Glutathione transferase
Amino acid sequence: MSAEYELFYWPLAGRGEFIRLIFEEAGVPFKETTLKDYTFSTDLKAGKAGFPGFAPPVLRKGDFQLSQTPIICKYLGKQFGMYPETEEDEWHAEQVNATIHDFLAEGWLIVCIASLHFITARIVFHAKCFTEGYHSQKKETQPYVDWFIKERLSKWLQMLEVTLKANKDGQGFVVGDKLTYLDLALLHVLRSAKSQFAEAFDANQDIPLLKAFLERMSARPKLAAYFKSDRCGPFVGDSMM
Ligand SMILES: N[C@@H](CCC(=O)N[C@@H](CS)C(=O)NCC(=O)O)C(=O)O
């Protein structure tokens, strides 16, 4: 069966991984087109190949084109029956989906609203020179990484712990009684946080439900097989991407 869906993304886990996990868990084949330069992004913004979008990842099915990761996840969740069953759960899913993507963005994006002392990940990881890679400025960047770990990481994780606990005391899924796209989003952001901040994540004693959730979700047969496969790429190691 040829893949109906095509995912355009960079050769890294990043935001694309939220989408890959949905395909993997659903057992739906998809074609992945790895981006090498910004041409696609420019064409996408101009709406040259379909509905104008923002930035990769981009999902295409025929002439239907969609960007914005949380929206793509919601769309695929609905397509593949991984969607909340009540209206209240649907709205709670929206809320948590937005929180997860705020967390990831803070771990990467470039937003500095000095008056609010709000520092984002690009600054966290690129303190000396914004355009140089993280690895060439690790030492200069470390205080910001330490700040992020101390002041922000545990807050995001605690919020997600409380959220998970709110449904069935944290023993099942994020909302309702069955797996939704949101569980896969939570799984990915936890894998991402653990990968980048392994020591702080492992040492955190206040997130037992998240840790158990991470283990339980990672052991689902299709996901476990994916994580062991060549299809699953590594995290780049310079942010939560
Ligand atoms: N809010 C968007 C952010 C997309 C985004 O920033 N994508 C990055 C890679 S993870 C990118 O390729 N940006 C290129 C650009 O902004 O032109 C989403 O969630 O999809």
